[in-house]
Design a protein that fits this description.
The protein has 485 residues and is α+β, with helices and mostly antiparallel strands. Helices cover 31% and strands 22% of the residues. The chain is built from 15 helices and 21 strands. The strands form 5 sheets. A 7-stranded mixed beta sheet has the order 8-9-10-1-11-19-12, with helices on both faces. Strands 14-18-13-17-15-16 form a 6-stranded mixed beta sheet. It has a 4-stranded antiparallel beta sheet with strand order 4-5-7-6, with helices on one face. Helix 1 packs across helix 6, helix 1 crosses helix 7 and helix 14 packs antiparallel against helix 15.
Length: 485
């Protein structure tokens, strides 16, 4: 056993003693341990990954992505009459909302207008091209766009809300009512959801520390954990007979973002030096599971828009030379913001050490998730680390790199600006050819892609029927079962 595993074992034993006796659990409930609880159960205002994952279980989307990154819908079929005009027709056997109303055309159309009218929703950005909605029959409607968009349907992966509750200004963040496979159960403490088909209850329990999460799994205080598990913890659990472990490659990209208004970070030479100084292979080898893949762009190799890109190598000698030329008389000082998650902080600390070796003094500032993401949204950062979850539409390049996409008009929170890239983005959208855009972002180091973190789930032997997916969603809860042992 390695020294790291020895250390983990002693940590587990120590925490085990501190935690004391096992809590009383309901044998009929499945307890899901999370690094972070969902922050918003209104699907149109969900910014964090946990919220998006649970909302995908509570609500039915108009469209969704399959495992091959193609758009599918169980609600409508569609036809593109032109790149500016689409017609949608309802399918049969539409679902019922959890308060008893069957979904109809009005629910879809009113949901669309509700999103557009509320500019604070991140979904509003995705629907800003809509010029007009037109109901052409009780079963069909048209959407007219202001400009051509061959990928427009990719923007329709939003949850459908019941029109009667929208009209009553229902607070979906407090009492979510959708038509998905799970309904929401009011609870004083943890979030609980109930599977509609058979009544299976799943309780979500926030346990920030991954070691404590693993310990509680071993003590049967929780039944399952997924992701945000350090490599040594995963290996430790794999060696336990009472635990089953599932792994898969991932499609969510972890990255480092920049504020391009910063005097230092506006220099492409410094961004290049930072990229050259980070030993991503070392980080993935020692801290992330074996299914983690290095990234050079937003989309993984399986995505249809993915490009063959030559990576910037790990070259600390060249990085140090660049830094010395940029600042021969003093050390460059930068601040890196991250969440308080212990695992993410560990990664940030290693990056801090690597940059220090080339003459960049990195100050790490940890914040609780709400404050942290608020700073990201407002552009209050120099550098930050984050993971894009569920991003599958290449239009994301337009939203985060076009100079006209500064919030609230887009997601260009770092104020990236390049007339050359603007022209490429404007040409890519109508033609759906993103090759030049992707390569130009890589050349200008618009961000530093780190890796597509592999997925790992660990659960007790009493659990069966669970599956994991490349984007790290919780769809496995649709089929999960808890058996008597």
């Amino acid at each position: 056993m390695s020294s790291k595993l020895h250390s983990l074992c002693f940590s587990l034993i120590f925490i085990f003693c501190l935690l004391g006796c096992t809590q009383d659990n309901d044998d009929n409930v499945i307890y899901f341990g999370l690094a972070q609880s969902p922050q918003n159960l209104d699907p149109h205002f969900a910014y964090d990954a946990a919220s998006e994952k649970i909302n995908n279980l509570i609500y039915s989307p108009l469209f969704f992505y399959d495992e091959r990154f193609n758009m599918q819908s169980e609600i409508v079929s569609y036809k593109m009459l032109s790149p500016k005009e689409y017609v949608f027709t309802l399918k049969e056997n539409l679902p019922y909302f959890h308060h008893g109303k069957k979904m109809d055309l009005d629910d879809i159309m009113i949901t669309v207008t509700h999103i557009i009218s509320d500019g604070l929703s991140p979904k509003a950005i995705e629907l800003k091209k809509i010029k007009k909605l037109e109901k052409i029959s009780p079963q069909a409607f048209k959407i007219y766009l202001n400009s051509s968009d061959l990928n427009f349907v990719h923007n329709l992966n939003f949850a459908i809300l019941p029109a009667d509750l929208i009209n009553k200004n229902h607070n979906f963040s407090v009492n979510p009512i959708g038509s998905g496979p799970f309904s929401f159960l009011p609870s004083r403490q943890n979030i609980k959801i109930k599977r509609v088909d058979d009544g299976q209850i799943v309780e979500l329990i926030e346990i920030k520390d991954p070691t404590v999460r693993a310990l509680k799994l071993l003590k049967n205080e929780i039944d399952i954990i997924q992701n945000d598990i350090p490599k040594e913890t995963s290996k430790f659990l794999e060696g336990k007979e009472s635990i089953s472990v599932l792994k898969s490659v991932g499609s969510n990209i972890s990255y480092i973002g920049f504020n391009f208004k910063d005097p230092w970070l506006s220099k492409i030479e410094l961004r290049k030096a930072i990229s050259l100084a980070i030993n991503r292979e070392q980080l993935t080898t020692f801290f992330l599971n074996e299914n983690t893949r290095l990234a050079e762009q937003i989309f993984p190799p399986a995505h249809w828009v993915s490009e063959q890109i030559k990576p910037l190598p790990y070259d600390p000698i060249l990085a140090k030379e660049i830094v010395s030329k940029l600042s021969p008389d003093r050390v460059i000082e930068l601040t890196f913001k991250t969440s308080t998650d212990p695992f993410r902080l560990k990664i940030a600390t290693i990056i801090q050490e690597q940059l220090n070796e080339v003459g960049i003094r990195l100050k790490i500032k940890t914040l609780d998730w709400g404050t942290y993401f608020k700073d990201i949204q407002s552009g209050n950062f120099q550098m930050y680390g984050l993971t894009w979850v569920g991003v599958k539409n290449p239009d994301i390049y337009q939203k985060i790199f076009h100079s006209q996409s500064i919030p609230p008009h887009g997601l260009n929170r770092g104020n990236f600006s390049s007339p050359q890239l603007d022209k490429l983005l404007e040409a890519a959208s109508p033609t759906n050819n993103w090759s030049k855009v992707i390569n130009q972002v890589h050349m200008q180091i618009g961000f530093i892609p780190l890796w597509y973190e592999g997925n790992v789930a660990a659960f007790n032997k009493s659990i069966s029927g669970y599956t994991i997916h490349a984007d790290g969603n919780w769809d496995g809860l649709k089929t999960i079962k808890k058996n008597d042992l």
